Amino acid sequence: MRFRKGRPKIPRIISEEPKARIFKPAEILGNTTNNNEKEVLHLSLEELESIRLVDYLGYSHEEAANAMGISRRVFWNILKSARKKVSDFLVNGKIIRIEGGYYKLRECGMNDICGKGKYCIFKPTRCCPRFQVNDDDRYNTDNNTDNKD
Fold this sequence. Notes:
UPF0251, Arc Repressor Mutant, subunit A, UPF0251 protein Metok_0236, 4 helices, RNA_pol_sigma_r3/r4-like, alpha/beta, three-stranded mixed β-sheet, WH-like_DNA-bd_sf
């Protein structure tokens, strides 16, 4: 019987896949496959998500860790790695390729607001950002809209 060392790795929750996967300085022309592989940095999708949550959306580390379904320490390690890669990209003019990682996409009902995911006490209409509803119907808990007098 084979035993695993340590705790099993938990997939990180990300909101969406990026719209663009490769970024390079304007001075670098041509296809990225012809460039030296040492000049290409690989940023995982969970590293991108950590930067998006903290630096772009302004979440605290605790809120961002809850949104990704991981501990604050693991989140900090991911964010630290991501920031190092992005700074290397900016300072040294390297190519950055976003790919890979151990993640799963956020499902409707998993939310950033309360951080409880599928255990959220609210209906998806109140906390799921992907569930589009009209503002008038947002907090309506009555499913039957017909008035029977």
